[in-house]
């Protein structure tokens, strides 16, 4: 299986709940390594650009409002099958539909405040890692 990198964001709701460490523990238990990380309070422009694929969707404004509502923790995760593995750890977009034991089932309150973001495929992973970490060190470990 291929070693992949994926972009993960711990969203403002989960940062506010002080569960960064609990979420990192799940990544580590699943064999995913944090190879780059930084905390940021996204500007509107950054959030709009990051989620530009959704700009015509009815939920776009709420999504951007939420993503700029407080600081987020952004990381690159590396490991075997990291993109899909992270999506499995996250659970379904709507926490009410997320499988028990997933990050969203355990820490998210609603489809808007849903604790984490994860890249959804190889192309988006590459683009999203570059979006937040271009020109910065990503550490091989
Ligand atoms: P994410 O991009 O944040 O990892 O979430 P996702 O892949 O599971 O879901 P996606 O379809 O990419 O949607 C991005 C974010 O928009 C909000 N959303 N709201 N009200 C709605 O129907 C709706 N659909 C999506 C969610 O907060 C989702 O995480
Ligand atoms: Mg998505």
TrEMBL record:
Domain Nucleoside diphosphate kinase-like: 3-140
Active site: 117
Compartments where located: Cytoplasm
InterPro entries: NDK-like_dom, NDK-like_dom_sf, Nucleoside_diP_kinase, Nucleoside_diP_kinase_AS
Keyword ATP-binding: yes
CDD domains the record matches: NDPk_I
Coiled coil regions in record: none
SUPFAM superfamilies in the record: Nucleoside diphosphate kinase, NDK
Keywords linked to the UniProt accession: ATP-binding, Cytoplasm, Kinase, Magnesium, Metal-binding, Nucleotide metabolism, Nucleotide-binding, Phosphoprotein, Transferase
Similarity field: Belongs to the NDK family.
Function in brief: Major role in the synthesis of nucleoside triphosphates other than ATP. The ATP gamma phosphate is transferred to the NDP beta phosphate via a ping-pong mechanism, using a phosphorylated active-site intermediate.
Name of this chain's protein: Nucleoside diphosphate kinase
Organism: Acidovorax lacteus
GN (gene name): ndk
């Amino acid at each position: 299986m291929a070693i992949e990198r994926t972009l993960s964001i711990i969203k403002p709701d989960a940062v506010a709940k002080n569960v960064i460490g609990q979420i990192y523990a799940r990544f580590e238990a699943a064999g995913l390594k944090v190879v780059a990380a930084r905390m940021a309070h996204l500007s509107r422009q950054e959030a709009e650009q990051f989620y530009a694929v959704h700009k015509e969707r009815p939920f776009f404004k709420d999504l951007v409002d939420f993503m700029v509502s407080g600081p987020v923790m952004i990381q690159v995760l590396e490991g075997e099958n990291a993109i899909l593995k992270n999506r499995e750890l996250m659970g379904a977009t709507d926490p009410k539909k997320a499988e028990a034991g997933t990050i969203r089932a355990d820490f998210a309150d609603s489809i808007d405040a849903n604790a984490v973001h994860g890249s959804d495929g190889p192309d988006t992973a590459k683009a999203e890692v570059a979006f937040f970490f271009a020109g910065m060190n990503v550490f091989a470990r």
